Amino acid sequence: MTLSALKMQRWVIFVFALSAATIIGAWAFQLIGGFSPCPLCLMQRWAYYVVLPLTLAMLWPAVAARTPLVRLGLIICALVMIGGAGIGVYHAGVEWGFWPGPQSCAGGGGLSGGLPDLSKATVVRCDEAQWRMFGLSFAGWNVVVSLLVAAVALRGAMTRDHGSSSLSQ
Questions:
Q1: Which residues contact 154 (CB under 8 A, 6 or more apart)?
Q2: How far apart are CA 15 and CA 69, in angstroms?
Q3: What is the CATH T-level fold of the domain 3-157, as seen in this structure?
Q4: Alpha-carbon span 97 to 125, nearest angstrom
Q5: Which of 47, 63, 69, 135 is deepest in the core (most CB within 10 A)?
Q6: Strands (DSSP E) along 14-128, which ranges?
């Protein structure tokens, strides 16, 4: 594995760690803190649910040795997280009253397909922030973290091979 491949693996691990810490934090706020996620909150988690297995796949030895494949994977992670940040911006805008939220946030419809059936539970409104810190709600902080993870992934994707030195063939 080349030196640049090893350096790139550190970035993959960093993307995985940030994503895992974020989703674990979201679950902790939900399970320990008693904050119930709204449909848009659940949607924002999708980016992490894509990035986590993708980064694990990039750590697989047969994939990890292929620098172009890992670079592509990191770019995909960055794009997914930018998409997740976009959902967060939309959600924060709904909370601030800049635009209306989806019907599923007001009552009735829900998400299913393996997720809890929200139509049978009390629906948490998407337009009411349950918590804020430094003026940012959960949605706002998700934007910040998503963009950070995207930046880390892009930085890792820009790791270049400086020479043809390799540690082992």
A1: 74, 75, 78
A2: 16
A3: Bromodomain-like (1.20.1550)
A4: 12
A5: 47
A6: none
Q: Two tokens at 169?
A: 């063939």
What is the b/e burial string over 122-146, where b = at least 16 CB atoms within 10 angstroms of the residue's CB? Answer: ebbbbbebbeeeeebbbbbbbbebb
The tokens of 65 are what?
């040795």
Per-residue pLDDT of the chain (169 residues; tens, 9 = 90+): 566 667 888 899 999 999 999 999 888 888 887 778 888 888 899 999 999 999 999 988 777 678 888 899 999 999 999 999 998 999 888 887 787 777 777 654 444 445 555 455 555 676 776 766 677 787 887 999 999 999 999 999 998 765 444 433 3
Q: pTM for the complete prediction?
A: 0.76
SS3 5: helix
Helix (H, G, I), strand (E, B) or coil at 133: strand
CA proximity to 18, closest of 165, 166, 144: 144
Residue with tokens 């059936």: 117
For residues 7 and 104, give the distance between their C-alpha atoms in angstroms, rounded to a whole number: 44
Helix (H) or strand (E) holding 136: strand 136-137
